[in-house]
């Protein structure tokens, strides 16, 4: 297997425990949105426990944070899922459920095809992005870097093609 895939991690700080009434809409949508991702063109893998999601996995030494991590075949496939699928409906409600984070809460990076990133890797990428801003090591949708395989459009190429990468929330 050759080439590269795009890994992404995002973290969120719930306003209340996941078992609260306030978070019930988010929790109720998890299976649907995870299934949507699993079936999306270009989806490769997502972090999950035997429960089918990653809400029990913790990182950055904060038991309150929840994590989502996945791998996609391309920047285009991840962009389509995040900004142009029913995932947007959930993103628009995130302020109802989650704190607004003052530091980077999402990081993207290229991995060799077939590599499944670890939670420790995700922590390193977010920490690096927070300390250094977007670099080839860890970047964002707005400030991306091309795949080392050089067949991927960067998000700047996607923006030039007319796609809006403004957060829909």
Helical content stands at 25-40%
Counting H and I runs of at least 4 residues, what is the number of helices?
Answer: 6
Number of strands: 4
> The biggest beta sheet, please?
4 strands, antiparallel
Oligomer: single chain
Terminal Cα separation, in Å?
Answer: 37 Å
Q: Pairing-aware structural class of the strands and helices?
A: alpha+beta
Average pLDDT, all residues: 87
Radius of gyration: 15 Å
Compressed to H and E, one letter per element, the order equals EHEEHHHEHH
Outline the low-pLDDT stretches.
156-162
Shape: globular
- Which band does the percent of strand residues land in? 15-25%
Enumerate the strands of the largest sheet in spatial order, edge to edge or round the barrel. 2-3-1-4
Structural summary, described in words:
By secondary structure, this protein is of the alpha+beta class. Helices cover 33% and strands 16% of the residues. The protein has 6 helices and 4 strands, in the order βαββαααβαα. It is globular.
């Amino acid at each position: 297997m050759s080439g590269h895939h795009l890994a992404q991690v995002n973290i969120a700080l719930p306003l209340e425990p996941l078992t609260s009434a306030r978070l019930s809409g988010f929790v109720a949508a998890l299976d649907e949105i995870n299934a949507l991702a699993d079936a999306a063109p270009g989806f490769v893998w997502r972090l999950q426990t035997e429960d089918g999601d990653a809400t029990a996995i913790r990182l950055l030494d904060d038991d309150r944070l929840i994590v989502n991590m996945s791998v996609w075949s391309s920047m285009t496939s991840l962009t389509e899922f995040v900004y142009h699928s029913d995932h947007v409906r959930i993103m628009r409600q995130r302020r109802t459920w989650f704190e607004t984070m003052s530091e980077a809460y999402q990081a993207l990076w290229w991995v060799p095809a077939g590599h499944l990133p670890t939670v420790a890797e995700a922590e390193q990428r977010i920490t690096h992005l927070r300390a250094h801003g977007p670099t080839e090591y860890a970047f964002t949708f707005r400030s991306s870097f091309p795949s080392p395989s050089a067949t991927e459009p960067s998000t700047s190429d996607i923006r030039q093609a007319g796609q809006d990468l403004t957060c829909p929330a």
